[in-house]
Design brief:
Length: about 160
């Protein structure tokens, strides 16, 4: 049996429907579909026009199987920029085939080639298979920190309070 051809490339504008599909699938997997607020227009604006994030897409033959979304950060302690991996997603049909690892390795390679001080990401506490995957790559959890978040409406509340 012939081995299937696997490839990874940077996303193009024509890939917006693929990116959208994967983000929706990831939201369902993480039970966070209630937080979805994106549109194809917002993806185009922020990824391709304003270049606020980058996306790489993995393919088996010509079939998109997953993606990684990442963006640049800066660490005052390290004194250099880094990359933040926001999404690493492989469609359930293609999990367990090493595609997630290859996507992750590609992001790590990009971070290394760009001389980043670090590559960081978050993982949901209940996602044992992902945690095990990251630990197998020698990643370390940061137990001394907790992520906090202000959503858009709460940002406005801070602004409204400060002008009183």
């Amino acid at each position: 049996m012939r081995e299937k051809k696997f490839s990874i490339r940077f996303a193009k504008i024509k890939d917006i429907p693929i990116i959208m599909k994967f983000i929706k699938e990831l939201a369902v997997y993480e039970n966070l579909e209630h937080e979805l607020n994106l549109t194809e227009d917002s993806l185009k604006e922020n990824i391709f026009d304003k270049k606020k994030a980058e996306v790489i897409i993995a393919f088996e033959e010509n079939e998109p199987v997953g993606h990684a979304v990442f963006f640049e950060t800066f660490s005052t302690f390290v004194g250099r920029h880094g990359l933040y991996l926001d999404d690493l997603y492989v469609n359930s049909k293609y999990r367990g085939m090493g595609y997630g690892k290859r996507l992750f390795e590609e992001v790590a390679k990009i971070a290394y080639e760009r001389n980043c001080g670090r590559l960081e990401w978050q993982c949901l506490d209940w996602n044992k298979s992902s945690i095990d995957f990251y630990l197998s790559l020698n990643a370390s959890a940061m137990p001394e920190s907790t992520t906090y978040r202000l959503n858009h409406s709460n940002l406005k509340k801070i602004f409204d309070i400060s002008i009183l």
